[in-house]
Amino acid sequence: MSDQPQQVPAGYRQDHQGRLVPEDLIKPIDKARDELVAEILSQALPQRDLLAQFKHKTIGDIQAFVELSAEQYGVKLGGKKGNVQLLSFDGRYKVQLKQHEHITFSEQIEAAKELIDNCLNRWTEGGRPEVKALVERAFRTNHKRQLRTAEVLGLKNLEIDDEEWQLAMKALVDSITVAGSTAYINIYERVGDTDRWQHISLDLAAV
What we know:
- This protein is 43% helix and 20% strand.
- It has 207 residues and is of the alpha+beta class.
- Strand 1 and strand 2 form a beta hairpin.
- Helix 2 (108-123) packs antiparallel against helix 5.
- It is flat, with a radius of gyration of 27 Å.
């Protein structure tokens, strides 16, 4: 089966179901709608590309500046850079580069869950219903059938003096895998002479 796009002969247009429709059978309003969408897309796609170029260049410029700043102290940085905040000389503008890591869990999370279940079973007679509720909530999956990372990691903050629980927390920590990261650029302008900052949005919905 060929993946090549269907050739549209002169005098026809292809509809959203892949059917060839003669031009003279297409309603004027449908043609006008198609032309408007095409006009909007012809302007939107270059703007998207410009934003992508801006983000890529800005991240590179910030990382290069961090390297330059470190060289003052005879330090050469390696690997991925972390979160960075740059302030203009007059204090009016602030640029932030944030790295958000995408955390997943290896098969060791199953061992952690089994150990935690053992603890809950042992504690059933002794109560601790609030701990059971926290564990059950932490191991619920989202709509993509993925564990809720923040809630699972939140179990590490529970101060429980139990040898099996501590072993479960070790298995949990060992299961953590960083699957990648996403870089975010945030730009702010100071509000007058206050300590408040106004986000300069590059989001179409916010302008």
